[in-house]
Amino acid sequence: xxxxxxxxxxxxxxxxxxxxxxxxxxxxxxxxxxxxxxxxxxxxxxxxxxxxxxxxxxxxxxxxxxxxxxxxxxxxxxxxxxxxxxxxxxxxxxxxxxxxxxxxxxxxxxxxxxxxxxxxxxxxxxxxxxxxxxxxxx
Length: 138
Prior knowledge:
The protein is mainly alpha-helical. Helices cover 53% and strands 5% of the residues.
């Protein structure tokens, strides 16, 4: 190393050969790009050969694939499904219609039902429905 200070004639600035360093960087870049190109070409060539040798799957094998069992699934858009359910419930609570026309059972809006119960002073007597799944006898 030189005893002269940096920036003086014959100092460190003159010892660095910028031209050689630049040529080295350019050659390293060229070699890297060529190496990547050769690797990519080799990969594509081998992949194409592998695809040719791979036979198509048998239709019987596809038919033998296990099917998804019924059950709960993850919701893709829970916000939209919740909005649809709430809209349906709102329509049911606010709408008029027949539940069972033959027996004279109608659906009235919830506001009218509340008013009718308030005027009557009590709820009508309902017959409880039989349990759908009776408990087994011990």
